[in-house]
Amino acid sequence: MVLYLHRPTREAAYADAEPEEPGAAYRLGAGRFPPQSHLVRLARTGSRANEPAGVREAGPLKELAYRFEFGLKSSPAQLWPLVSDTNHFNRDAGVPAVERLGVGDNARRKLRLSMLGVSVEWEEEPFEWVSPYRFSVVRRYVRGPVESMRTSATLEPGPGGGTRLVYEVRARPRNILGRIAIPLQIGVLSRRRFVAVFRRYDATVDLDGEASAGRRPRLAPGARERIEGARLALVSSGASAELVERLCVLVESGDDLSVGNLRPYVLADVWHADRREILALCLQATRRGMLELRWELLCPLCRGAAASEVSLGAVAGRLHCETCRIDFTADFDRSVEVKFRPSPSIRRVEQLDFCVAGPQVTPHVVAQQLIAPGGRRVLGARLEPGRYRLRALALPSGLTVTVSAGGAQEAQVRVEPQGWPVAELELAEEAALALENATAEEQLLILERTAWSDRAATAAEVTALQVYRDLFAAEALRPGEPISVGTLTVVFTDLRGSTRFYRDVGDAPAFGLVLEHLDLLREAVAAEDGAVVKSMGDAIMAVFPRPVGALRAMLSAQEAVAGRPLALKVGMHTGPCIAVNQNGVLDYFGSTINLAARLVELSSGEDIVVSEAVLADPEVATLTHRAEPIDEVLKGFEGELLALWRLAQ
Questions:
Q1: The pTM is what?
Q2: 3 state DSSP class of 525
Q3: What is the CATH class of 2-207?
Q4: Cα distance between residue 325 and residue 107, in whole Å
């Protein structure tokens, strides 16, 4: 998507400073630096024609302004995830780690760092950005040699391709120490680092690899031997030798920021590998002692981590986000994500922050702007089709925005104290959206995609995998703490004629055949990314993330037992589920489970009885099967109109 921001001059006090025309520019001399073909210009700028370049009168000491211009071969969309990841960028540019001191109104943050023995504290305004073309932030220091600093980055498409990147820093010193330190730090040291970092980011786009270059990790004693032992065990268990090797190299040599929050689906995308294969590999590496697993509990609004736990048993149902100032309930389907990091027996990962906000902290937000009371701004937007939400951090509710080819090309939204004026807004893919703040307070307006990223491995997915249940059988929720896991497909099976079979052939032979049947079911379930929750004699309960996987697994299992003395009865339903710790084991309950358990009673063993929710799934519709309606009233569901179907090949 593309957004262009136009700012009225009457709101200059709250708007980002627009890039000024460069004053007397100085270029990199050939004798001082090696040739940099990607570098266009670095300049110090001033706002008055009769002042020396780089200074502007603003109080006791003058503001110093630095403008760095780069010509890069990658597009703005390719560079945006790297340049706007301000946590990585600050680390790569040599900024010290920061300490969080608190969160104020509209996501203002109080932070502190120490540089050369000097403690520096500041209040940081919320980042403002328009993805993927511009971001900026203002910091107002409460102590230290600097009074304030504004940093901005603008990425413009080049006329012949590539990107013209302009990085500006405006700093006002508080005292003479700041007047000396700012030119040295920004004009000399940071300039060299900016050149190196942006050049590496530009090259990283082509390499499709890791952009950061942190300090070489310090391994624990015996770490290499443990990694080698884990590698051999993983390969011998059937994991891909190539993927195991890549994971071992990453764990041993990756920088702390990268390996401290390993997301298996993101890793799979970078390695061009199957997502479930990488997730299973990370789970197995955890059991082998190379990785450790953590559960991150995400705020439903900003989607930032409100808490992080090492076990499901520590996951609390109620949580609080200090940025959004809301309490929320953990939802396995969205707000609990599994991440990995190296085990302390391999290396100790320093969990340091170099920037605690920025566009990549909330990548689902496509634009964020701080608008003054009575202020007005216009967003000229080029948006991807889909659903968005426009909301203000300090106001309840929000405005649903639908983007489609038939939407309006111009629209205006007036944010008032009582809330939002309309229920839904329809925009064209290219539209001008005017935003007006009619409240008496400044408002942080956020335009965000409503769809959650599919690159997060959620707890609902992970706990429904057979490999997770096999490896982490003791992992369960806190006793008595039910948590929503979203929508799952629930399957119940039973063997038709098992009682007579035991009587006809004897207990021992019959029991052996039943065990073979259960093994067959487990294999069929695991092959379709499902998990056996529990077995009940010769019956099982299983869960799947998608209906089509459940149906394929059960059709395969029925085909495998065809011709045997026993037939496999199956009932299947899709719907919301609740997870709970049942006798130390992760189990599920709710009306979805109750209905699926009743459906198996209607199966003959030569069919699969499903609900309308299963049959209506788009993927299920692509399978070839006969569907016959069932006219039955289920026990416990009297008075409900249930559409039930009998499926057969």
A1: 0.71
A2: helix
A3: alpha beta
A4: 9
